Amino acid sequence: MPERRPTHAKRAHAKQMNAKRAYTRKKAAPPSRTPAPSPSRPTHGQTLLTRRHFLYGALGIGAAAALAGGGFAVYNATQSEDPEETVATLQVPVDAVSLSDNCTAIDEAELSNYVTLVGSFELPYGTLLWTNNDSVAACLLPTEESARPLTQVALLYLGSGERTTVLEEAVGQAEGYDIYDVRTSEQGVIWTESNILDGMWRIFAASLSDGALGTPTLLEEGLAADWETPTIAAVGMNAFWQVLPALGGERTTSDSLLKRSRFGSNGAIDTVYASTGRMSTPPYPTSDSLVITPRTNSSGVNHQLTLIDADSGTVLDKVVLPSAMKPLEAGYGANGFTFSFDAWYNYGDGIAKIGTYTPAQTHAAEAYDGLPWFSWTRSPTAAPAWCGSWFIVKSTRAVCGVDIGSMTYFALPTESGSGKEGDYLATTGSTSTFVTYASVNNTSIDGTTKKVCLVRVWAPVA
Hints:
The protein is mostly beta strands. The chain has two helices and 34 strands.
């Protein structure tokens, strides 16, 4: 097996197990306000609220699913009868990759010639956002430090800045559940609720009509024994959730499942895709499709970047990474798949290093051989996006846009008081605008304190 250099995963797992043991000893006590260690599974760039570290900490170790609903496997990576099936993998020579180190930075004074700020809004400090379209973002709002519920769900309309709270508390609030995660499309909302004391999770969805949330439908629930808390996505009329066998659990060798329910369908469920073992990333939505990273049924461990049509479940594009290469993030845009690594490999040629990769030109589906590539060489902290012809990535503090053709890039200005994390990229997929946000805690010379989540909407200059 090719050697892979160590990552932070083992250290993060050890820290999280310690956090869970400490929390178990204090089971009767209210949640601490001290930041908890990183979760045991990758957070994929998400900056977590202090009080919700307990949600990620307790449930990130694993959750068991009562696999609700029937459905059918549209695409099943385990359906081949040949256990030694061979697959063609992506080959990228070193000299086919252009590096961001060779890009020319656009001067900040010239920034307005390339991108413009079309919206700026303030939300409660510590808010998290997600969007894959140009009209609405899902917001997970923190409540007051002493309050329960811990979080609420709001929708932010990106054109006007109007914010509507659509879920003031978890459906299972009285049973000890809190809202853990949320995604939205223009047609519906999917969210996760968790009870960290009992180690349980639930997946809910509800349709949207004129900005109002319909009746919540329970799609699936599980215990923290065999299955991780699902990751979720919303695309059009479809709610998706991805169920993975927990590391070290009784179902470690079970398939990973991507499931789907239509908003307003009263809980009817399809199993859209089954993967041998664990998928390597959460699902990443675009405006009409979804990127997942199942494993192939091959003699080695190969992860396959896979684009699925949200409505039909049809595989639209796919490419297999070399053996044992495991992406941290994935996405899809103008030039096809993009993916990132948070570790170096001693093989893989042009895609062996830490960074975010994408083809440097458009091409037909599944035609990735012989292409030029581009690598954003910084450590990945967010899934990338596309906005027009710009490849949008999160750098160390700033969000940047890269014109791969001209090898130039801009870095958005960061707000004073946004800390070492700076701006975060909220957008995935390919859109005509993109959204950034930052937790700003700044005290001016006159003693005035500004403590907000600053959301900004950007558009490329035509």
